[in-house]
């Protein structure tokens, strides 16, 4: 099913909103963990916890689709690219640019946003993934 331009713009707006909340959540968890563990361990744990929250916010709010175990298990794939871009960026910003370890994860996260949108939409939105049989999962829309 093709999504109208208005629907796509709505998804982008909601994705940005969820991304802001998710980034704030990630950053808050990171700052809480940072004093008790190495910065990269704190970053990784905060990333995983924020990713779980992101899955539910994106399924229910951004793409308005029903979460399923299959999507939940595939969702980390949407974050592999994000994680790699952020991890390389974090390392480069801290090791090579000398950026403060409390700020560098935030800067690295911004760079990864467009990639995450495209990949998450492909997995979570029925009709954009290869899984065409998931179309009836659209929340709030019944087919008669």
Would you kindly provide a written description of the structure presented here, covering whatever features stand out?
With 144 residues, the chain is an all-alpha fold. The protein is built from four helices and no strands. The protein has helices spanning 5-33, 39-62, 69-96, 104-124.
Number of helices: 4
* Shape call: elongated
**Mean pLDDT reading:** 83
What's the number of extended β-strand segments?
0
Structural class by helix and strand composition: mainly alpha
* Share of residues in strands: under 5%
Uncertain runs: 129-144
N/C terminus separation: 16 Å
User: What is the H/E string?
Assistant: HHHH
Outline of this structure?
The chain is an all-alpha fold and 144 residues long. It has helices at residues 5-33, 39-62, 69-96, 104-124. The two termini are 16 Å apart.
Features:
single chain; about 0% strand; about 140 residues; mainly alpha; 4 helices; disordered C terminus
What is the element layout, followed by pairings?
Blueprint: H1 5-33, H2 39-62, H3 69-96, H4 104-124
């Amino acid at each position: 099913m093709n999504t109208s331009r208005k629907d796509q713009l709505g998804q982008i707006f909601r994705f940005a909103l969820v991304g802001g909340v998710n980034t704030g959540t990630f950053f808050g968890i990171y700052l809480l963990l940072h004093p008790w563990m190495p910065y990269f361990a704190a970053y990784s744990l905060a990333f995983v916890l924020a990713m779980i929250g992101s899955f539910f916010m994106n399924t229910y709010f951004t793409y308005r689709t029903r979460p399923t175990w299959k999507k939940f298990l595939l969702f980390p794939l949407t974050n592999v690219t994000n994680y790699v871009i952020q991890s390389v960026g974090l390392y480069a910003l801290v090791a090579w640019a000398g950026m403060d370890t409390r700020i560098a994860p935030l800067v690295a996260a911004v760079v990864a946003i467009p990639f995450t949108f495209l990949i998450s939409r492909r997995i979570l939105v029925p009709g954009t993934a290869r899984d065409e049989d998931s179309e009836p999962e659209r929340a709030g829309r019944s087919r008669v």
